[in-house]
Amino acid sequence: MKEFMRVWREEYRNIFGDKGVLMIFFGAIFFYSIFYPLPYAKEVLKDAPLAVVDLDHSSLSRQLTRMVDAHESAKVAAQAASQLEAEQLFFARKVHGILIIPHDFERTILRKEQSSVAVYSDASYFLLYQQVMTGVAVASGTLSAGIEIKRMQAGGFSEAQAKQLRDPLQLVAVALFNPSGGYASYVVPAVLVMILQQTLLIGIGMLSGTAREDGQQSSNTPLPQGQLFPQGAGTGYGTVIAHVLGKSAAYFSLYLFNAAYYFIVLPRLYNFPQRSNALDLALLVLPFLLAVIFLGLSLAKLFRHREASMLALMFTSLPALFLAGFSWPKESIPAWLRGVSYLLPSTAGTDGLLRINQMGASLQDVRFDVLVLWGLVDLYFFMACFSIKRFTK
Amino acid sequence: MKLTAIKRWTAAAHPGFNAVVHRELVRIFSRRIYLLMVLILPLVSFAVLAAIFSTGSPRHLPIAVYDADNTDFSRRLVRLLDAAPTLHVAQQVTDLKEGKALILSGASYALVVLPRGLERDRFRGHGAQVTSFYNNQSMTAGSIVNRGIRDTLKAVSAELDQQSRQQRGETSAAAAPHAEPIIVESRALFNPYLNYLYFLAGALMPTMLQIFIIVVSVYAVGVEMKEGSARDWLDTAGGSPWRAVAGKLAPYTVGFLCVGLLMNSYLFLWLKLPLRGSVTLIAMATVLLVLSYQAVALLIVAATANLRISLSTAAIYAAPAFAFAGITFPVMAMPLSGKIWGGLLPLSYYLIILLDQGMRGAPVSVSLPALAAMCGFVVVIPALAVPRLGRLMVDEQQWGKR
Q1: Which residues of chain A does B37 touch, with a Cβ-Cβ cutoff of 8 Å?
Q2: Residues of chain B contacting A163 with CB distance shorter than 8 Å
Q3: A193 and A325 in contact (C-beta within 8 Å)?
Q4: Any B CB within 8 A of A175 CB
């Protein structure tokens, strides 16, 4: 116990005496909290620009153009005289969609036949594609329904009857948790989990790399020398465990504040949906942080230089983010890779934290994630003890 | 390769560019971190990304159904939902609470509620209503599932509409065109099957590559200051900082060009991304991508004169680049500060060229501004960085800082 307290205090000294580590543990945490959400500040993409090629020049074709322009997801940025002109605008990225209204559009519809409009949309940018398609589909659907309901009313049906008749099976779709489809609310909470994990891993690696550079002379000697322990406590398992736990206590106590900043303060600041129960949140953050810390300590001894952890870990963030399954559905990741991905605390951590914090799930709902995290805590605790013991012999 | 062999192979007597290249090759092969960071890890990370998106588009996403009607009609709806390619009815629940729990735990992305009286309402000609709740926190899966449910029900609705018209005495042939006066024929340009692999892999792999380029370049230059070997480096170059920098970075340029070539072969030949434009332009852009990130790395080391701070700066610059490059969330919707930051990343221009000349098959002229911007990085930034770097190489007070 005394050894535990000593290591804990000493690790505080190492952290607070090292500007580089402070920059990672606190500087990066703060900086990224402002920088990362920046591109998504407007949350949704409105007014995706499209060009209209109106070959009909009728009142109905103009009405359709106006209705597309009026829809919030799209805007008519240009009226092109020909398809060729529209294509040029498209390649120049002035527009991301083309709506072509055929020349007999109005006449065909007045003859009570079907007329089709063509819409080309830019599928190299999925969000733009979606917005252009939504704008055109909603506008033409509304126009179409209006025409048909008028026809039926002419045939003697009331407006309400006509509506029911033309759409006998209606669907009411309710978007849960992120009703407006905000992009920041979708991406940023997951990225925050990743930042916590990566900064912790890099910081722990840096502390250990520094100790390796400094050699045994430094205050950060991996284990106390014999003379410090006249009673001969040596390097038994008790000391190793005290050592791992002491260091972990230092990181954990500091990262509790970071986690509170990321999971409680920031969502409010950015107006993300937040529905969590504080106790459930805490009970998930606990194993997440412990798993990351023990993983950090297990890896730490691989880094022989101060910068090595940054070098080796920086590139892992992006693949880890996509492995976490928040954007690419976990069901679509190959099973073997999905299994391996659970070795990263961020996989279960991101899933669990999004569910608890953004979706309002209870600890019971995310019990699988909690179980995985506690499994990792055990696994990496043993690995950390093993790694520290091996390198002190 | 054996270190001695390298030494013999590249040995150069006179100080200058060749001597620096020789010195660098010896350094590269004496620490495994270089080989790891230049060749092995980039390729591993490409493979992991390709594996993640290897299914192309999500299919059979799990949804839950609460069938309170339990009639022939409602059971048919459940079967139709399950038959939709993007959907899989994984669970049938017996109340709303159970359905909600499934969404919260992640076992299902949506709950479709078929209310009691659905079949009866349909026969009486009352509008029958189905409600779906879908998880829009998982936006990709949520919107795919929502579209699948909507399309399935729309098809049933159109079929019912046609049936009732026939019952009212219209012939089938006459009834059909009435259903919808305006049809929208939609074409997804460039990526007709909305393949996520094409959409994301083509952008993510260059994003990974730029992280490796900048980190390795910063490390290779910065470590000379940290370990106090900068004077030796400059002497090997015969006192010219330009030659010193060029000789040092050249081996990495070659290494990353190989990785870039492998990346593009992987994207266009193996993953079969459409390649409809100019291969030459893509090749030129890839060269410029490597050179421009090496240039930025020089500037970062020159500005900070400290390996660790340089690496942190490089991390801040390159790690979030994907968000600012405007592939997933378009540049036009970003605030001005985001647009400016995106414009300061060579990656943004590279991805524009890659898209234009790959998937889009745009005319070459369209990509020239982006190419010019990348040239700008390669010309302007070293002019700023190298003179100052030259001063740092002889300033012993700057050494050993960490």
Answers
A1: 311-312
A2: 127
A3: no
A4: yes
- Would the CB atoms of B204 and A318 count as touching at under 8 Å? yes
Res A247: pLDDT:
86
Instruction: With a cut of 80, say whether residue B6 has pLDDT above it.
Output: no
Q: Which residues in A61-183 belong to E strands, given as ranges?
A: 74-79, 97-101, 115-122, 169-176
ipTM value of the model? Answer: 0.83
Query: CB of A151 within 8 Å of any CB in chain B?
Result: yes
Compute φ and ψ for A363, nearest 5 degrees.
-60, -35
Q: Residue B61 has which token pair? A: 């996403």
Interface of A with B in 22-81 (CB under 8 A): 23-24, 27-28, 31-32, 35-36, 38-42, 44-46, 49, 64
Q: Residue B376 — pLDDT band, cuts 50, 70, 90?
A: very high
Select the more confidently predicted residue: B398 or B45.
B45
Neighboring chain A residues of B320 at a CB cutoff of 8 Å: 32, 35-36
Q: Rounded to whole angstroms, how far apart are CA atoms B263 and B255?
A: 12
Interface test with B, best of A61, A72, A116, A318 (most B CBs within 10 A): A318
pLDDT tens profile B112-150: 988 888 777 777 766 788 888 999 888 888 888 988 898
**Given an 8 Å threshold on Cβ–Cβ distance, is B182 in contact with A140?**
yes
CA distance A66 to A76: 8
Which residue type does B10 have? T
Give the chain B residue nearest A140 (alpha carbons): B182
Do the Cβ atoms of B179 and B154 come closer than 8 Å? Answer: no
**Contact by Cβ (8 Å): B49, B198:** no
Asked if residues A298 and A384 have their Cβ atoms less than 8 Å apart, the reply is: yes
> Which helix (H) or strand (E) covers residue B67, if one does?
strand B61-67
Find chain B residues with C-beta within 8 A of A165's C-beta: 125, 161, 164
Contact call for B178 and A358, based on CB within 8 A: no
Handedness of CA A250, A252, A256, A258 (dihedral sign): positive
The residue in chain B having the minimum alpha-carbon distance to the alpha carbon of residue A143 is B182
Block residue for tokens 């600041």 = A269
The residues in A 308-327 lying below 8 A from B, measured between CB atoms, are 308, 310-312, 314-319, 322-323, 326-327
pLDDT classification of A291: cutoffs 50, 70, 90: very high
Asked if A331 lies within 8 A of B60 by C-beta distance, the reply is: yes
pLDDT of A184 over the 80 cut: yes
Phi and psi at residue B187, to the nearest 5°: -125, 125
If DSSP codes are grouped into helix, strand and coil, which group holds residue B190? Answer: coil
Q: Is A117 helix (H, G, I), strand (E, B) or coil?
A: strand
- Would you state the pLDDT for residue B200? 84
Lookup: tokens for A56: 């009909």
Average pLDDT value for residue range A33-42: 84
Q: What is the pTM assigned to this prediction? A: 0.85
CA–CA distance, A246 with A8 (Å, rounded to integer): 4
- Which is more confident, B286 or B30? B286
Instruction: Provide the CA A129 distance to its chain's centre, in angstroms.
Output: 21
Q: How high is the pLDDT of residue B171? A: 58
Mean pLDDT of the region A144-165: 76
Which amino acid would we find at residue A362?
S
